[in-house]
Design goal:
65 residues, 4 helices
Length: 65
């Protein structure tokens, strides 16, 4: 489960997309705030529409162990 806000670059990397594509996705789900880290609720909106990405969260979980 996501516990901290993520940068837009982190989210794009996790999905394996460009930041330009992520900005289009952000607009598509109705996030209008410009710049800054994506809040947990904003990330959840993306997860609902595009599925939860793997990779970045798995790496963070392994680092915590």
């Amino acid at each position: 489960m996501l516990k901290t806000p993520l940068s837009r670059s982190e989210v794009a990397i996790a999905y394996g997309i460009t930041t330009r594509t992520l900005y289009n996705w952000i607009k598509d789900v109705g996030i209008t705030r410009k710049g800054g880290r994506l809040t947990i609720p904003e990330c959840e909106l993306l997860f609902e529409k595009y599925g939860k990405p793997t990779g970045i969260w798995e790496k963070k979980e392994k680092a915590k162990r």
